[in-house]
Amino acid sequence: HTPAVENPLFCTDSYKVTHHFQYPEGTTTVYSYFESRGGVYPETVFFGLQYIIKRWLLGTVITKEHIAEAKALYKMHFGQDVFNEEGWTYILEKHNGHLPLLIKAVPEGTVVPTRNVLFTVENTDPNVPWLTNWFETIMVQVWYPMTIATHSRAQKAIIARHLSETADNLDSLPFKLHDFGFRGVASVETAAIGGGSHLVNFMGTDTIASLVFARKYYNCDMAGFSIPAAEHSTITTWGREGERDAYANMLSKFPNGLVAVVSDSFDIFNACAKIWGQELKDQVVNRNGTLVIRPDSGDPPEIVEKVLNILGEAFGTITNSKGYKELPKYVRVIQGDGINAEMLDKILNRMRKGNWSAENLVFGSGGALLQKVNRDTQKCAFKCSSCVINGEARNIFKQPITDPGKNSKKGRLTLELHDNQYVTVQEGKGDPKKDLLVPVFENGKLLKDYSFDEIRERAELPIVKQARKK
Ligand SMILES: O=C1OCCC/C1=C\Nc1ccccc1
Question: 3-state SS of the chain: helix, strand, coil percent to 5?
Fold first, then answer.
């Protein structure tokens, strides 16, 4: 876990550079907490803080060079001396550049109803109370991994429900929503983080950055898998008259296992009925593996239904234990165009009307999976709730008459289970022995290093845990 590449003194908002002047005289502790105040989903998968800690906060993050560089930049940025050179030099000298902070967090992967404390931050050295909120900026960025993990899990629940009602089992669930999002996000780092968050719930991805993320920050050697697949260029370069040869080439170059072929370059219906269903039928039937046919245009529910009906005509179907139709194991369909949470449900409902099992289809999703969220999706916020001034602890809060939804919690907080319900106990009235918040970082050291497997287990859907017992 190499120290942050960029100067950590630049990983904050400009106004925070001036905040050490603004706390009351005698302030020695600032204690702040992070929560989702609500939003699209009633509960969130807490995920991603471990990445932020490892990427930015571990070990000797503050150096003489960082301070000099920051001093010069902020002089230019503000046109005056506001940068707290003394304060950061103190951290460099007294703490050898380690950050004197204590962070307590709910274990990664835990699914927590909104409006509960998810992590707390406080300074451990009374001389630097302004430090706690300096790193709010990058710690609040945890909104992204947790919102993607939550959004992805909600889609898993939709697919799981349809599988449980129309398929023999949930075995195919981990591969039912494939990450197509690398090109659709704002940066390679976003792809790594967002793709990694999706892999908390699923095992299929084309976002290679997510594999590196899970390996480097979550102790997981191989968090996701993919298969040989065509893109339009590897089909259209054969020319329109070469479509059949392009498809035959895919089957001969990848003779075993799964292979996916995008088949809408010209006429998806002709490709399914005439080429896959007749000209190459024997190769498909006798293949030691599964051909995954990929439409990539048209109205998704209509296209999926038509393609399934054509393939059913060509290859036949069986009726599974739930009374729904399944194509033979050697042919499946992947729909990666126009997919989002509501479209998933729309397609699967349309399939059910045609008596098709959810077993027949895999989804791919890009921008809708990794990019169409923001900090407001789950109203993620970080607020000070307690401080110590001249030795006296005080409960701090905001209570805007202009938006009660922005009221913040008061005092030191614990997250506890009462009658199996998550409860945030405020004003220091919690029971430390029942506190589910775990110290994960203190004075430059990582205290908990969660593995991807345990995170996946914590985030697992009840319907999946239930199905294991059968
Ligand atoms: O279309 C795409 O857009 C961009 C991301 C990758 C991708 C397709 N990949 C794929 C993988 C496995 C089975 C089928 C397709």
Answer: 45, 20, 35
